[in-house]
Design brief:
Layout lengths: L1 E8 L7 H16 L1 E8 L2 H13 L4 E6 L6 H10 L3 H4 L4 H11 L4 E5 L14 E5 L4 H11 L3 H24 L2 E4 L1 H9 L7 E3 L22 E5 L5 H21 L4 E5 L4 H10 L4 E4 L5 H4 L4 E4 L9 H9 L3 E3 L1 H4 L11 E2 L3 H13 L1 H18 L2 H11 L4
Parallel strand pairs: 1-2, 1-4, 2-3, 4-5, 5-6, 6-7, 8-9, 8-11, 9-10, 11-12, 12-13
Helix pairs in contact: 6-7, 9-10, 9-14, 12-15
Length: 395
């Protein structure tokens, strides 16, 4: 069939959780269907990446517009007047709408990769509309509001969460099928969307890590690893929380412990991290995570808000590096605390679990083995692709 794939940014190179999922889905669909991709670019590097993507997947057609609308108070007020959430406003383009309008009716299916792009489905389009929800966005915003102490900011975020919730409900009701993580499906059905609309999907990562050799306790140092792009509020919030309240407890118990942070960061984040501890290693973006996995003993994902499935957690479990995360970090996956990883949401429990894994070889080996086994049994790309194919069927 002919399929139009609408996504907010070019999913190449696939280096973040969102872009990894979009790229793998696009790659799969292009093997079975005639696919065109419509997206936004922001700079010349994106143009070069477009050429790389079409060289890799030669049978797809790409069209795009340039867009870069910042998150500012001015644009927030503009979104109020437009009566759409700020995130939708920031991804609104008349030029791109015109490009989609002149193409859309030639396709059997419009695959909306992320709710931001639903605004471009023409109201008169009669084909099948499949929405791929990367996250239940309103859940993430409500959680963010709950953690915000500034009363004005809290109100603004809470109001935005309500606007996003209404938008997501309307979108899901109109779409033929919605692909979403199990935890987000629960949230959206509670919001009033029929459960019949949903097909489960999972955000996965580098499945090839399952074939890598088992990690060896003695080959690791007494070190902790954090992975996450530090331009994303949820990652920054979780990291700062860990450094302020968990890290001192761990250091007091194990003075020789070291901590490494992998992920893009800016100067403001660097200053903030080093104001808490000068000895923390900021490694920046690391292309081959195997190099850091094999030398670190414990991986932490101290997320306090967000939604969907967290690829950083999935990748760590694939590789078998024992993981300590929160209930937010583990949601959407059928994992058992103390069997596959440790799930802790208070500072004492989080620090205690990290200390245990740094010291106890038997516990470390048990979690390393169990985590890889559960991922091999339940969370592979094959099952994801089967459900995506199911969403495209006219039944």
């Amino acid at each position: 069939m002919r399929l139009l794939f609408l996504t907010p940014k070019l999913p190449f190179p696939p280096i973040s959780g969102s872009s990894i999922k979009s790229f793998r889905v696009l790659e799969h669909l292009s093997q079975l269907h005639d696919v065109s991709i419509g997206c936004f670019l922001t700079n010349e590097e994106d143009e070069r990446n477009t050429e790389s993507l079409t060289a890799l997947i030669s049978n797809i057609d790409v069209f795009h517009s340039f867009l870069n609308i910042p998150r500012t108070p001015k644009n927030l007020f503009k979104s109020y007047f437009a009566n759409i959430p700020l995130t939708i406003y920031r991804n609104h383009s008349k030029a791109f709408r015109a490009l989609v309008e002149e193409r859309a009716y030639n396709y059997d299916v419009i695959f909306v990769d992320h709710y931001l792009m639903y605004q471009y489905v023409p109201k008169s389009y009669q084909g099948r509309v499949v929405v791929h929800q990367h996250n239940a966005e309103h859940v993430m915003w409500f959680r963010y509001a709950g953690l915000t102490s500034n009363i004005i900011k809290k109100f603004a975020i809470y109001f935005e969460a309500l606007r996003i919730k209404r938008y997501e409900i309307d979108m899901c009701r109109v779409a033929n099928k919605v692909l979403t993580a199990p935890n987000d499906k629960i949230a959206l059905t509670k919001a009033g969307v029929s459960v019949q609309k949903f097909i489960d999907t999972y955000h996965l990562g580098n499945e090839s890590s399952l074939t890598a050799p088992e990690m060896v306790f003695e080959d690791t140092s007494v070190s902790i690893l954090f992975i996450g792009t530090l331009t994303w509020e949820a990652n920054v919030d979780g990291l700062i929380w860990f450094l302020e309240v968990c890290w001192p407890i761990i250091q007091q118990s194990i003075p020789e412990v070291t901590f490494s942070i992998v992920g893009r960061y800016n100067d403001a984040i660097k200053r903030r991290v080093h104001s808490l501890n000068q000895n923390i290693q900021l490694l920046g973006y690391v292309e081959n995570l195997e190099e850091v996995y094999k030398t670190h003993r414990v991986c932490v994902a101290p997320l306090r808000f967000g939604s969907g499935i967290k690829v950083k957690v999935v990748d760590g479990l694939y590789r078998g590096i024992p993981m300590v995360t929160t209930n937010i970090g583990a949601e959407g996956l059928s994992l058992v605390h103390g069997e596959h990883l440790f799930i802790e949401s208070d500072k004492e429990g989080f620090a205690r679990s990290v200390i245990l894994l740094l010291k106890n070889k038997a516990e470390w080996q048990r979690l390393s083995s169990n985590s890889r086994q559960i991922m091999k049994e339940k969370y592979t790309w094959e099952s994801v692709f089967e459900n995506i194919d199911e969403s495209l069927k006219y039944v």
